Amino acid sequence: MLNNIILASKSKVRKEILEKNDIICNVEPSNVDEESVKESLQKERASPEIISKNLAELKANKVSLKKKDQIVIGADSVIDLNGELISKPESRDQAMLILKKLNGKNHFLISSVCISKNGQMMWNYTDKAKLKMKNFSDEELKEYLSKISDEALYAYNVYQIEGEGKKLFSQIDGDENTIMGLPIKKIQEYLRGLK
Questions:
Q1: Beta strand 84-86 with 169-173: parallel, antiparallel or unpaired?
Q2: CA-based, 20 to 30 A from 68: which of 62, 138, 159, 180?
Q3: Distance of alpha carbon 160 from its chain centroid, rounded?
Q4: What is the model's pLDDT at position 162?
Q5: How many Cα atoms within 13 Å fall on the side-chain side of residue 141?
Q6: What is the spatial distance between Cα 79 and Cα 81, in angstroms, rounded to a whole number?
Q7: Which of 33, 69, 76, 150 is catalytic?
Q8: Is the pLDDT of residue 2 over 80?
Q9: Residue-range domains of the chain with CATH
Q10: pLDDT tens for each residue of 114-133
Q11: DSSP string across 37-79
């Protein structure tokens, strides 16, 4: 695989996915103000998929401007509930509201990835997974949240599919790596073509 790849993300899970797949990377967070970008795009009635794509590109381009001739991977994941964008919670109360919204319903987890060099997008890809959450009482949702650490809750939205979160769903259609935030198979295909 290629050397000198930079991941424009603080996500430990994304770094782990890359490394498990023999893609060694350095981490350089983009520090993009995601909330203001989301707000601006929502005002323009952008779909959750477009928002995810834009954020992945923005992160990759921003970091790649500073890292001359290096390949930078930017990524973003959002939840799409019937066209409504659901972002990561900023408090436990917010996490509870999100779980109540998703309770018993189908939704999509959208993960976008962008690869940039010298401030220009070279490639991008977006994948979706469809998840159906079981029906839970408020007490069951509170119990679930009590088992999730703050770090996990604020980093990976309200569920970690690789951990406790798997128990929330009656049906999962899609790639687990996409749900965890990085459609790795497509990234590998693209990077192999660059050799």
A1: unpaired
A2: 180
A3: 11
A4: 76
A5: 20
A6: 6
A7: 76
A8: no
A9: 5-194 (3.90.950.10)
A10: 999 999 999 999 999 999 99
A11: HHHHHHHTT--HHHHHHHHHHHHHHHHHHHSTT-EEEEEEEEE
Q: Is 39 exposed, middle or buried (0-12, 13-18, 19+ CB in 10 A)?
A: exposed
The whole-model pTM stands at 0.91
User: And the tokens for 105?
Assistant: 């319903």
Taking Cα atoms as reference points, which of 111, 57, 70, 17 lies closest to residue 194? 70
Q: How far apart are CA 152 and CA 159, in angstroms?
A: 8
The whole-angstrom separation of Cα 157 and Cα 89 is 6
User: φ and ψ at 109, to 5 degrees?
Assistant: -105, 120
CB atoms near residue 45 (< 10 Å): 8
Assigned token pair, 148: 């999730």
Q: Quickly tell me which residue has 């770090």 as its tokens.
A: 151
